Amino acid sequence: MNDRHVEAELSAYLDGEAKEPARIQRHLQTCPECARLHLEMLKLSARLRALPTPEASPDFAGRVLDRVAQSKPSRLHWQPVFALMATGLVLTAGFAWFRGIGVQSSPGRVAAFGEAVASSPMEQLASELAGDSDWGFYEDEAERGLGLEVTHEDETALLTGMTLEDEEAYGDRGDSFESIDALSREEMDALAVALETYLEEG
Amino acid sequence: MYDVDDWELVARAQAGDAEAFAALVRRHQNPVIRFCQRMTRSVPDAEDLAQETFVRLHRHLHRLRPDAKFTTALFGIARNLTLNFLRGQARRAWFWRSAPEFAEIPAPKSAEPSELLRVSEIESALESEIARLTPEHREVLLLREFEGLDYEAIARVTGCRIGTVRSRLARAREQLRVHLEALGGEF
Questions:
Q1: Nearest residue, CB atoms, A44 vs list B22, B43, B176
Q2: Model confidence band, residue B92 (pLDDT cutoffs 50, 70, 90)
Q3: Does the beta carbon of B48 lie under 8 angstroms from any beta carbon of chain A?
Q4: Which CATH number is correct for B1-105, 3.10.290.10, 1.10.1740.10, 3.40.50.720, 3.40.50.300?
Q5: Euclidean distance between CA atoms A167 and A157, whole angstroms
Q6: Lowest-pLDDT range of B109-113, B131-135, B150-154
Q7: Which helix (H) or strand (E) holds A98?
Q8: What is the rounded average pLDDT of the residues A28-33?
């Protein structure tokens, strides 16, 4: 029994807390290896206890007593209250953030949003601008107050470089063309004869 | 008042005797600072933690009962505060991806100049190796070797079983012994 090494029990033996101190003592008297370990443990313990001890600053006790005197007994512990408030804030912020992400990530919400956009006047305006627009659209949109205030006068100037007065003058000439269409066959023949005579005379 | 038992001072402090509480602080301030300093490896933090230990002791004076050693209650508070401090330090170190910085414990003073280097070297090595122990092993070593608490008191302070105290203490001592042996010198 005494042949079993006791290195694992030397620490407790050193402290007087070993379960079988008598057996360990007997083993140490016969086992040089465990005896050497025991001696090293003793030296280690002595070295540790000889380490310099830090001392409190001279006003340490005074500062403690000041703090004790200043601290009023409070029934309300603020630390849990602050922790609760912080948790509430974090949860609220997290919920708001999650909802924001939810709008972006929910397919149903995205589809509904897309339909709403597609039916909006601005979307109609965009499709008109991108594809087969007619000029009447601008008048309609101007009436609906979409900010595209294109008047007929502006539209004329934009397209022809003419003012409204120019267009009216052009319209007068158009009226003269209509008067040509209104000539009778006899008048047309007479006009053709007159033209041929003019060309022959040269 | 130094010849009065700790629990007698506690009883007086509980009755409102401020001087009795001051005597308790002065009696135990150095051991508490020593424990906090070796647990945290930081001189200024150790004083702050020790101060907080006594403030909390005063706050809970009315709950103290003389059914154990007074130091068990005192070091129980100090131990919890230092472990919380170390956890916070570890969290900060993880957040900033850096190792926690430790202040150097002041070099020991030796009377003999010829022995100064040798003693200083061994003591410095011991302090470094104590700091390298895990907090669980470090606290049992400090409470036993420096504060002289028995295993039952250490188990009360640390909240673990006596068998755990025994094995942790044996492992901590073995780590220190092996390290000093590896340094190549008689210690």
A1: B176
A2: confident
A3: no
A4: 1.10.1740.10
A5: 9
A6: B109-113
A7: helix A78-105
A8: 94
CA dist B76 → A25, B97, B157 (Å): 34, 31, 5
Could you give the ipTM of this predicted complex? 0.82
Instruction: Say if A49 is an interface residue toward chain B (CB within 8 Å).
Output: yes
- Give the mean model confidence (pLDDT) for residues A43-60: 90
| Cβ-based contacts of B145 with chain A (< 8 Å) | 45, 48-49
Q: Quick one: how far is CA A96 from the chain centroid?
A: 12
- B66, B75, B71, B77: which is closest to B12 by C-alpha? B66
Kindly report the number of other CB atoms within 10 A of residue A28's CB atom.
Answer: 19
User: Would you list the domain boundaries of chain A?
Assistant: 7-49, 151-202
In the chain, the amino acid numbered A142 is A
Residues in A touching B59 (Cβ below 8 Å)? 71, 73
- Give A40's pLDDT tier (boundaries 50, 70, 90): very high
Chain A: nearest CA to B57, how far in angstroms? Answer: 10
CB atoms within 10 A of CB B124: 14
pLDDT of residue B24: 95
| Tens of pLDDT, residues A75-107 | 556 677 778 888 889 898 888 887 765 545 555
B126 CB near a chain A CB, below 8 Å?
yes
Interface with B, mutate which of A11, A41, A53, A77 (most B CBs under 10 A): A11
Contact between A63 and B166 using a beta-carbon 8 Å cutoff: no
Arithmetic mean of pLDDT, B69-78 = 94
Identify the three-state secondary structure at position A109. helix
Size of interface A-B (CB pairs under 8 A): 101
Q: Which of B145, B154, B181 to mutate to test the interface with A (most CBs of A within 10 A)?
A: B145
**Cβ-Cβ contacts under 8 Å, A10 against chain B:** 170
Q: Where are the domains of chain B?
A: 1-105, 107-187
Instruction: Look at B30 and A51 and tell me if their CB atoms are within 8 Å.
Output: no
Looking at CA atoms only, how far is residue B153 from chain A in angstroms? 12
Q: Using a pLDDT cut of 70, give the percent of chain A over it.
A: 52
CATH of domain B107-187: 1.10.10.10
**Distance between CA atoms of residues A73 and A104, nearest Å:** 51
